[in-house]
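Weekly puzzle thread! Below is a chain. First person to post its structure in token form gets bragging rights.
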Amino acid sequence: MTMTQQPQYARYLLYSSRLTIISILTAYYYQLWDCCLLTLIITTTSQLYWSYPIDGWRRHLDMLAVLSGLSYQVAYTAWRVPWWTRLTYYLFVSLMGGSYLVARYYGRHLEYRLACGYHLLLHCLGNLSNIWLYTHHTNEIGVSK
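Winning reply:
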């Protein structure tokens, strides 16, 4: 199995993946139990993966958790906010996707410091987008305020 990140940079990603605790607490505060559970799962799988980042089942489990949570929020949760909140959330998601692609590019070219920086940005954007979405949430579908 190959390491996907150098140990000196992986620890920063381990620490930054703990930012999801803020998303968990925000979801809990707003009583969004589904989002709270999803971010708790993502925190757990991320800690498992980034503690020793090798390309294997832990990485695949983390990717599955993140993509499942993101898909759920894009398809379900984002439709319970005003249109302008949804649009801003989708902008966050686009920036996250771009940050991930840039991080992968630098990782493939063995520029681990830059890859780490863009992945740190991804973690920050992910949590900012969660906070944005959760603080504007309503229980109505298709809110058009």
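Puzzle host: Confirmed. Bonus trivia for everyone else. The radius of gyration is 15 Å.
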